[in-house]
Amino acid sequence: MSEGSRAAIAAAISVVVVLIGVLYFIFDPADSALAPKCIFHSLTGWDCPGCGSQRMLHALLHGDLRGAWHANAFLLCASPLLALMIFSALFRTRLPRLYNILNSVPSIIIVSASLTAWTILRNL
Fold it and tell me: What is the Cα–Cα distance from 58 to 26, expressed in whole angstroms?
């Protein structure tokens, strides 16, 4: 892939991310009929690990940390790690050690166990 096409893809992704951010800033997913609903929650009545993530993003974009915490505390706390994982994936050829650490078996086990624990605890 040429450098120009990579730049075009990065620009397109950036535009989409900004547009999604603007939409989540403007529209409150708790009040909007257009916001996607969780299929897992609809079928089981239980909260999945991502339930509340749209409300968390909306609250975070408005600077409401308390609201973001109540909507999805796990995702709020995991956001820096998620950003670091995306960064390491984008620059894996330049930073292979960081990429390998974040994608190692122990890291995957820790994240999976944390996600499982969060899912169980939030549904008790």
Answer: 8
